[in-house]
Fold this protein.
Amino acid sequence: MRPLLKALIAATCLAASGGAALSQSTIRIGLAEDPDVLDPSLARTYVGRIVFASLCDKLFDIDEKLNVVPQLALSHATSDDGKQVTIKLRPGVKFHDGEPMDAAAVKYSLERHMTMQGSFRRPELSSVDKVEVVDPLTVRLDLKAPFSPLIAQLTDRAGMMVSPKAAAEAGDKFGQKPICAGPFKFVERVQQDRIVLEKHADYWNKANIHFDRVVFQPIVDSTVRLANLRSGQLDLIERALATDIKEIRANPKLKLASVVELGYQGVTMNIDNKDAGKTSLGQDPRVRQAFAAAIDRKAINEVVFNGEFVPGNQWISPENPYFQQSFPVPGRDVEKAKKLLKESGVKLPVTVDFMVPNGPETRQVAEVIQAMTAEAGFDVKIRVTEFATSLIQAEQGNYQAYMLAWSGRTDPDGNSFIFHACNQPQNYGKYCNKDVDALLTEARAKNGIEARKPIYEKATKILQEEGSVLYLYHRKVLIAHSDKVDGYRQMPDGLVRLTGTKFK
Amino acid sequence: MLSLIGKRLLQLIPTVFFVSVIIFSLQQLLPGDPALIMAGEEKDPEVIEQIRKQYRLDQPVPVQYLYWMKGVLSGDLGESMRIKVPVADLVMEKLPVTLQLATMAMIIALVIGVGLGVVSAVKQGRAIDYAVNVFGLIGISTPNFWLGIMMIFFFAVHLGWLPASGYVSPFDDFWASMKTTIMPAFVLGNSIAGVLMRHTRSAMLQAMSSDYVRTARAKGLSEKVVIIKHAMRNALTPIITLGALEFGTLLSGAVLTEQIFTIPGFGKLIVDAVFNRDYAVVQGVVLVTATTYIVLNLLADIGYILVNPRLRG
């Protein structure tokens, strides 16, 4: 009798645990890369932000139209002189460890971003002089100078709040077990294999969270990532390829969510970075204009991306509210290109050393550009270079043209200032014009699109004529998920937010 | 015998030392600046400066080497710049995965490779011999990534029998672990099986035509005993060396196969580390795998002596 009884108990236990496992809902998400360290101050990758979207809430968030909306904060107000920003916090918010998310915690988190050794948030918050606690639910940021993109910074990692207690205890090991105030809390991570999160029971918006667990799995190969989605091992994948869109749409079990990226793909020309800048391409704006006129952006999109991406000629896409309508995306004009080259009196063909970071799509785009510009009188020599190597070569000025992508920021300042102002870190071409500098700086001090857009228009005019970056197109962020997943909403930053999403 | 092993063990020390110097200096030849990559998209000059200091990238290479060696000798392989985790932890996390995959692949390779090699040698010139040879050629020449993707499409997407990718530890769930590793193990084993098969076949043919086999047959021993006890035992010597070397290669991580099946082993670890110029991880992993390779070589030599008594002098 005894063994039978034992077996019975065991069977009941098994059935019970099996039942519990079934009622647990787990969403499995396929990532295109393995994220770096999960510490909001030390993190630097795009893919890491996808994990943070479920793990660490921010003071503010963005909506579909790029408006700033409340998250951990309820509102913000900027003083008339633009040097004080007062932020009201949401009451009753708790971190994953039960600690209160109050003004003291915000002060701690922001100061951690600003002072921690190796923090990547320091430049993002460089406009902040000090953080003051006004009352338990109000903080005030005192700025060194007016800086309107600041609130947009607080919609991303710089606005992520960490539990002061956990952060103080863990020090620089915080990323191994991050404690934030997001909808899910950290359970475990196996490098290159998985990151597991589970529901935060005290989440302020828990009524809209419908999963018990989230499992992120990095799968680098896009074909395999899609195969996993098709076979049901994954529920959602990020960064599907444009060439896979047809197949995804044809499959009744799959759904596609897409949005035009905040960033761009473009070609940076070497204007004044060592000897390679001292060529006709670098010295004569007419040669750069000729190069641009010879390119058919629409054709690039059709040939390489099946027409799925968006041709562009500015640092933000035509769908962005800051897009300057007075500078529409131009068509191809080979005659104009030839004329410009003739005017400039250069000897034909104009050879161009074109450095292209390795990747199947970028290589194809480079080949299309090579063929198009050849008709106008350019001899483009494509030099495919591994990405990390291309960065140092760009820094050292070892190129004439460099194909470079920018993932984009919510505020237009993040797409323009560090690329076009003198001596900025992303200004690889060493372009420098005092007027552009002044305009971009002025736009930083003004609030609101009505005030800022006309300033950017003036800068755009100069940059279109003589700037160092030739904008080509804007990729689409493609998120594919199974038809089981319901209510998924794609935000313009391309990140995966699970609030409001559930299984059918 | 023991003194031989002792001597070989002593020889290990300078070899590993040279390996460490080579790893360190080769890595310096990699173009690209780790600080620049670590600095993220914004590349703030202040941040770059700080990273250089923190990881001693501003010091001369020999000084960096001495700091690293000092750590290694005290069991500290350094810290990953990218994910701020000790390299030793990463190695310990990946080692069981790679070990499991390599062992399974080796078993598959030995069963298929040696089995078919013996069969084709015994049935030399017959249809089955040709069939096996064609199979071997296909095994050697099929690219791993292609076979892997085809298997995923057939077994995971089309039939739905096996998970497309991922990894489960056998200690968590044995059958799930077998399911996740059988495809990559087969892909890896398949290419080695082809090589093993051809070597087994030629070694067996040589042994089968030798005097002692003729003598054994003349003694009236059954064909089974002749093949297994006399011919195979002698033919095995080169297979052991080859097997050990192939196993060593497997242990250093199968980059493409791990990438396709998303197996979190050494291969994926080292590829990610190279692309991110995460020097400490590259150095640590290469040092560990190189040492394993050398030790396996030693074990192969010992295995030699065990199967071939003539070498025991």
Q: What stands out?
A: Chain A touches chain B through 49 residues (CB under 8 Å). The longest helix of chain A spans residues 2-23. Residues 1-22 of chain A have pLDDT under 50 and may be disordered. The first strand of chain A starts at residue 26 and ends at 31.
